[in-house]
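Can't attach files on this board, so I'm pasting raw text. These are the components:
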Amino acid sequence: MLEVQNLTKIYDGGTVALRDLSFTVKDGEFLVIIGLSGSGKSTLLRCINRLIEPTEGRIIWDGVDITLLSGAELRHARRRIGMIFQQFNLVKRSSVLTNVLSGRLGYVNPWRSAVGRFPKEDVEQALICLDRVGILDQAHKRADELSGGQQQRVGIARALMQEPTLILADEPVASLDPATSHSILRYIEDLNRDEGVTVLCSLHFLSLARAYASRIIALKDGEMVFEGLPAEIDDARFKEIYGEEAIQVEIR
Amino acid sequence: MSAQEERQEKPAKEPRGLLSSRRFIGALFVGILVYAYAWQSTEINLRKLVTGYPDIVHIVTQIVQPDVLSRDKEYQEVLTNFQLPCTDSPPERMAASESEPYLVLSHTCGVPGEPLSVEGFNLRPNTRGTVRWIPPAGTIRSLAHFDSDGEGHFVEGISIPSVDESEELHQIQAELRWEVGLPYASETARIVFDKMLETIMLALMATTLGVFAAVPLSFLAARNLMSVSRPTMIIYFVIRGIFNIVRSIEPLIWAVVFAVWVGIGPFAGVLALGMHSIAALGKLYSEQVESIDTGPIEAVTATGANVLQTIVYAVVPQIVPPYLAFTIYRWDINVRMSTIIGMVGGGGVGFLLIQWVNLLRYKQAGVAVWAITVVVWVMDFISAYVREKIV
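---
Top answer:
Structure tokens for the assembled complex are below.
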């Protein structure tokens, strides 16, 4: 269980990204966070694995307050939290396999990995993960030779290598076309359904959120303006979240 | 914008068009003045370009026929006697022979200025030769060149040179020279090869010096790393400033400085090119650090990797290929620069080239010029190929 309590993030310039945010995510949920650009979705996800330091509040995951961790404890917490990014964040000049193996860095011997050596089981596991996302044949290509959809699958394979119990997906399909978006989200959905991985996923499009979320929270200017089931978002709610002038765009 | 404002702006546009055309004429006038002055001060002389051309032809023909290969030479000589002036007993003609080479003169005595025909028999066929006058004392003179025919015969008309009269007999020599065996690298080619190797090694050492100093400095000259605090920002500006100053001083000037400091030779060249390379590479490297993509760093950190692992997996792959590419490019530049750095005392093939040019030995200079051309071309090709592969 993930509990976010009174989370506030104020950036150095004084920008308030998150204001007193509290919610709970039960194990095995597929929680989608919606909201406009700049509403604080990315900041929220990055506070959970401490890529961004929260200003105030507590994040309790499986009974441990993540905000209090440091050093090796923090790294040990992070290795069970997979993260998927809008821009994929692959090392473009490295091979696909190396990118996937980097998901294992929290587990392996740091000195051996520093010279590029991974245990044989990890390499085998990486190939299995690549096979699972359907790009085993691309394993030895450079990451930037792949299409956007394929790169995001590498991103998923990298997260899988962490054997995560929680996946944070920050706009995972915002850089992809609609058809590819669905295939990527289905991989995440499978993980959630088959392996019980808890998913926190931010999305732009409400139609996608409705299709995949078990529950939705909506952020506006760093505050939670909605929490509930996908079906509960009607036109009035929609305008509340996205503003009066917004029009719903369907992605099928 | 209101309608009123719009109306006000319209008439203002026309004089502006007139103004800009007046400006254009002014700029044109200033431009003509500048170019007229430049034409004068650079002493451009198109007539000289034509009249001076014959002077260069001789140099160019020698440079395009460099002294690269040589072959062993063999020669054959025949001598016959001549009396100057005539006495009662002029020397006898050479005896004709079936197989031995011999010369026949139209007459065997005479005075300077008289025409004389020299005929040779049984010489080496189809070979170039020289007719020489060998007086009993004084210098030997070349009088004519000839080519023997298929039977080893030639006839050449000469006129008796104005040499001192003497009682002793003069000699007329016909000498044929020809090359035998396989061509081999000339002495010049071997010296140029040695110096060229020295030049490439000089460039290698200079580039290495540049890399070792520039890699650590490049991090201190990267704005994104150094903008964290005021003291680091000061370091950033100081190092950037030094880079810019050092880079703006040409390697030729550094070579003059170091030639005085450590003496003329390749070491001065290494220091001069190394100095310039540190600044040039430092700037390129630091720009690479500045343009690093933070996404992968974020992603690798999120997997639970420690700082060392993050550097190895997210930072190094991003900067090493471009660093390598810049380094090879720099080596390429350094090879090119080191060929001329020798001219001011920096060692290498440039030192040889400038010496030969000063001694007017253009055939040798030609070898150096061609060697430089080939090496620079090959380096350019390799560096382009490798850069394409790794970036």
